[in-house]
Amino acid sequence: MAPPFDFKEFQANLSVKLRPLQRSFQFWVRAADIYTGYKVFQVRVVFEKDAQKQEAMWERQHELAAEKIYSMCSDLGGFFLKVAQIIGKPDLAPAPWVKRLVTLCDHAPPTPANVVRCVLEAELGQSMEEVFERFDLDALGSASIAQVHRARLRGDKIDVAVKVQHPGVQDLMMTDLRNLKAFALYMQKTDIKFDLYSITKEMEKQIGYEFDFRREADAMERIRHFLYNQGKKSPVQVPRLIGNMLTGKVLVMEYIDGVPILNLGDEIAKRGINPAGKVATAAKQNILKNLTLAYGEMILRSGYFHADPHPGNILVCKGSEIALLDYGQVKDLPDELRLGYASLVLALADNDPIKASESFRELGIDTLKLCEQEEIEMLKLAQTMFDTKLPPGVKMLQPFSEGSSIKKISVRAFPEELFSVLRTVHLLRGLSVGLGINYSCAEQWRPIAEEALYSAGRLKDKDFRSKPRRRGFFSSLLWRK
């Protein structure tokens, strides 16, 4: 005799199967609304000849779009929280976008406490009471893939951070990425002459790695070992893995106390220090110096680096020290690309358009010139893509505006593996703009790039400009305004 039909079970199974289709439909409806809104506005705004009125019209349009983008990313969650991190940067996006989207960095809807308990007990094979002496059910932060809780293990005297993956998040995020790839392909064929499709493919590959916390733990330990064993104090703190408390969906690590970098201004003001004064500026410079030094060491010397320095992953600790969190996204650059990028860093530091063009070719960045003064525009494009410094008086790059280098130099092919470097530099620039410090990471990284090329036999001793091999990396990377 056949078992009785369970309508509720059928309904639940159908809901699970239809969920990706529902998300896809919601994405395309909302993305089309935002995109067509800007296209219609571009037609309307040309009829207004007054520049100030035009600017006011653009501001209103950006505010309207910001609300729609925020609503889409907040409602859909998942990968769209990462989209908010990528596009909501003060050096890249319109101010209304940044103001609205920055709040989504670490504010994903948390998984309910009872579900967290189920995940932990299923993964660890013990009850929470057997494992933890104390466990704060209110999450310290909830992001797109996981949330973090403060706790204390039984028989221990120090607090730990427990990272717990949201159930079912992988299927949703991979659906989101497939939709984004299709949208990127459409955009590069119509409006943006840049190889967006390759970038979204690399994002899909990198994010696919984030769902295995064992891989993240290995990455965290590898980077910690590299930075802590250079013969000098590490420029950033890296959490330590705690015991054997590790599975694919649960990661227990050292708890590091600090202030999220987005709250730095408020914290400075609380201490009675003028956020725009000399003391605050010196602290911000020191923070950026150490963060930039850490990334220069990782990218150019090791090739293995933390590839997600968005504000939610950076804590400011006592003495302006920096802690770098979340090692779900890491990249291991092949030596060929690492050394090619080192050559590009020197070209940018030297402001050399010929070397920049040569480095682009060496890296496999295929461009098509659509203008006069090709070499100058190529250098500007390289600076836009791979340096943190903004031109004098410029607060936002607007890389896709009509006068931008991307409109004059079409990027037909972009190596997928370089996307992590590109994203890292852009996130560092966003941080620098947010802190009000304009600087060049290429200039800061020059000594490390020279050392990397020298060690590989691609640079002779007489070609050194900063002589880092004789002075040491850390002493040669003095802060330059």
Task: Describe, in plain words, how this protein is organized in 3D.
- Strand 3 and strand 4 form a beta hairpin.
- The longest helix is centred in the N-terminal third of the chain and has 39 residues.
- The protein is of the alpha+beta class.
- The strands form four sheets. Strands 1, 2, 3, 4, 6 and 7 form a six-stranded antiparallel β-sheet that branches. It has a four-stranded mixed β-sheet with strand order 5-11-10-8.
Supply the number of helical segments: 19
Rounded mean pLDDT is: 84
* Global outline: globular
How much of the sequence lies in strands comes to 5-15%
Unreliable residue stretches: 468-481
Alpha-beta content class: alpha+beta
Task: Count all strands and give the number.
Answer: 14
C-alpha end-to-end distance: 81 Å
Question: Quick one: biggest sheet?
Answer: 6 strands, antiparallel
Rg (C-alpha, Å)? 24 Å
- Report the helical percentage: 55-70%
Keywords: Kinase, Transferase
GO molecular function: ATP binding; protein kinase activity
Protein name: AarF domain-containing kinase
Domain Protein kinase: 134-481
What's the short story on this structure?
The chain has helices at residues 7-45, 51-76, 79-87, 95-101, 113-124, 128-131, 169-190, 196-209, 213-228, 264-270, 278-302, 335-350, 353-363, 374-386, 405-408, 419-435, 441-455, 468-471, 473-476; strands spanning 132-135, 141-142, 146-153, 159-165, 236-237, 241-246, 250-254, 259-260, 304-306, 314-316, 322-324, 330-332, 366-369, 409-413. With 481 residues, the chain is α+β, with helices and mostly antiparallel strands. The protein is globular, with a radius of gyration of 24 Å.
